[in-house]
Each structure stands twice: as C-alpha cells, then as structure tokens.
C-alpha cells in the first residue's frame, strides 16, 4: 500500500499525473509505540525527527543528522545501480563496459571514507549497522523494520543493511522522503499506468489468463490463453514471477538443464500475510500521535524472536506489524466517517509445520487484531468487515510465487547480477524474444516500477529514457502481469 522508492523519472516519463495519479506523502512516515506507552515518530523533516529521538536518547539525536547524511550518500550510489540493468560481467565489449563506467563515475564522486563505508555496509545485517550508530531500541526498530518486509530474513540476516539503503533511493533530504501512498490506493497507480499505456497505443485486456508462451525454433512467437485464444507477438515481456514464467509457462525442453536448475533453486517462500479491515471509526491510539505507518515491533530483538518461529514453519504469535490507515490521507476510499486499515503481517511462513492456512487463517487474524487492540482499545468494536489474506491466498489469488511479496527473496545471493539467475540479470532469457521484468528481476520488489523501467531501456537499446513519446510500430508486445486475480494482458506499441 506504500510506494517506498518510486522514482520521479517514471512519473515524468509516462506523465502519470496527467492520467490521474496523485501521490500523497506520509508525514510522519513511521510511528512506533512501545509497550510502556511512549512512541517514536520519524518525520520527513529531519529536525522534527531529532526532537522525537531526544525523548529516548540525547546521544542518538546528536548522531541522527550524520547518519542521515551517510545514508543519502550511500543510497545515491545505489540509485545509479537501480536505475539501470546490472552490468553484464561476461560481456567484455564496449556495451558491457559502459554501465560499469557509469557506476565507476558515481563511485568516484564518493569521498574515500565513503567508498570504504559503502562496501563495508552493504553486506551487513541491519542490526549490526544500526547498533554501530544508535543505542535506543525503538529508534533502531523504527529505522530497520521496513527493510525486512516480504523477505525470509531477520534483523541479524546479512545483507539487510543493503535492503534498508534501497528504500532510501529518491529523497530530497532526510530519510524516508519518497514514501507515499497513491490517491485511490494502489489501484490508482495501476489505473494511471493503464491510461498511459493506452495513450501510447496499447490495448489492455483483463480476465485473460495466459496458459503458456508459444516457442518456435527457440524463439517466442506468442501466447496461448487458458480459454484457447492465441496471440502472436514479436516480443513478449513477462512481469509475473520469473520461476512461474520459466517453470509453468514454458515447456521444460525449451530451456537448458543448467538454466532450469538455477530457476528451480530460486528461493521464493512467502513470509507475509495481509489483513484488511473496514472500520466504523478511526483507531483511537493509546499513545500520542499515531500518523503514517504504525509499526508494532519496538525492538529488533523482538523482531528476531518473531522470525525464530517462522524458521520452523510456525507463524509468529508476536509478529512484526505495519498498520496503515490510508483513509486518513485519502477520505475518498471509505464512506464518510468510516475508515479502512491495511495491515502487513511479517513472519507468517507459506509452508506451515502443522496444519494448513485454510484452517489457520482465522487464528492469524485474531492474533493480528489482538496485537493492534493493545494500542487501540476501540479497534475490535469498530470492525465492520475483515479480510485475512494468508501467504497461500497471496499465491492462489494474486499469483505471487509461494505468496512471496517480492516474487523471490532479496537475499545477497539473489540480488544485482544474480537476480533472477546468474548470467541472466539484464531482463533477457534464453528464449529469443522473451523478456522478464517482474519483482523477481533487478532491482527487486516494492512497487518501484524500476524492473519494468530498466527492462524497457534494455529492450529498446537505451532509447527509453527521455523518449517514451516515441512509438515502435515494427513489433507488438505482450506483458503478462499478476496484478489481478485472473491476470492481465497488455498488447500494443511499446
């Protein structure tokens, strides 16, 4: 429900505001209550955040500005890496060197101490990184909790510092500057993208689930829908899970055994659930404030313990929760006087040790509501309707591989030039004419638009950036998307 690193380049290039998109900034961004009744809010304004932090640690407040400055520097380098296809390490020609030269120039812009810090920090766990800077548990939880969402990772997992930096890519100043909510919910963003696609000649068709990609002579030539329809295309772009594309939409004989082995080894076990609530009134929090994302999980140690359960196939009884009341920002999405709540639940594993999600769904919903009610006593009495989406639901209804929020784990061995599989990080596949650009590709998930943006540049040979007004009538394209339960098919000029 939150766009954490949506680049302004895409908003401008596709003129999404002209197609009705309005981004509503979160401020405060994150509020973390403590069991003792206090709370810490992180604001877009750095000085406001420092004043909040002073209530927990004067020393942390004094360090916050230096920490934010370092994060901006390091994230600035990552921004260049995220806004392009990963360097092709096996390509020794000029085309393979150009991306490396661009990154090298960005790297050269860092001071010597910042260069050392960059490569020291990237493989760190978020706990180790924040422990070096701060002493307050609630501050470390507020900063680091979101870096874990959707991944089978914990605060002590290596590489989670990199995920934290990846959520700070497009700030004007300070941390969390780019975090916002689309007016009308995520459907508002989807609708604006669809309108932009139509403007450039695309036809959008929903309820048209693709059954397989048609391959002739090692080239993709079209798609066959499950209803029997077939559509020819010179180019096919798949935005669903890459393992779904490779293992379900293609015949196994189309791919080499080594490639198939890598595809089968992509780790995609979901770890998130979702609870949606329709409320007769807004939650009345027991702490002062309560804006932005309300995170229930006030220490990284508590979050680590929640992960311990999930490791062994048990959903956590004290999960990490991020609660958003989007109707406070956008009253149009609920009836007058009423509200909706969206709750992201971390550490509910797709594979359960005992039982199954169909029988555990209501139990999980009660755990989540009870946890929120500890901080909002009026919640239970205000619930008009509830919906619990388990990882199994996310897989079956929305097509997410094993219910995975990012299509596959964003772990160190599944990032950058190893995403989705080693040797195939530039959105191409072994099948000529077939590309992939979903969250399972570089730079990963999180509603950024970056995989598709980068894939478009790769497909069009670098013509995409700044020239999206151009049409290329020499080929058609088909994009397979899992944004709706029945799948979506887009056809037309790129």
Characteristic terms for this protein:
494 residues, alpha+beta, 7-stranded mixed β-sheet, 5-stranded mixed β-sheet
Alpha-beta classification:
alpha+beta
Strand count: 17
Low-confidence runs (pLDDT<50, min 5 residues)? 463-478, 481-494
Helix content: 25-40%
Give the rounded overall mean pLDDT: 88
| β-strand amount | 15-25%
Q: Enumerate how many helices there are, as a single number.
A: 16
Q: Estimate the global geometry from the Cα principal axes.
A: globular
Largest sheet: 7 strands, mixed
Biggest sheet strand order reads: 3-2-11-12-13-10-14
Radius of gyration: 22 Å
The N- to C-terminal Cα distance equals 27 Å
Description:
This protein is α+β, with helices and mostly antiparallel strands. Helices cover 34% and strands 17% of the residues. It is built from 16 helices and 17 strands. The strands form four sheets. It has a seven-stranded mixed sheet with strand order 3-2-11-12-13-10-14, with helices on both faces. A hairpin with a 4-residue loop joins strand 7 and strand 8 (230-232). Helix 2 runs antiparallel to helix 3. It is globular, with a radius of gyration of 22 Å.
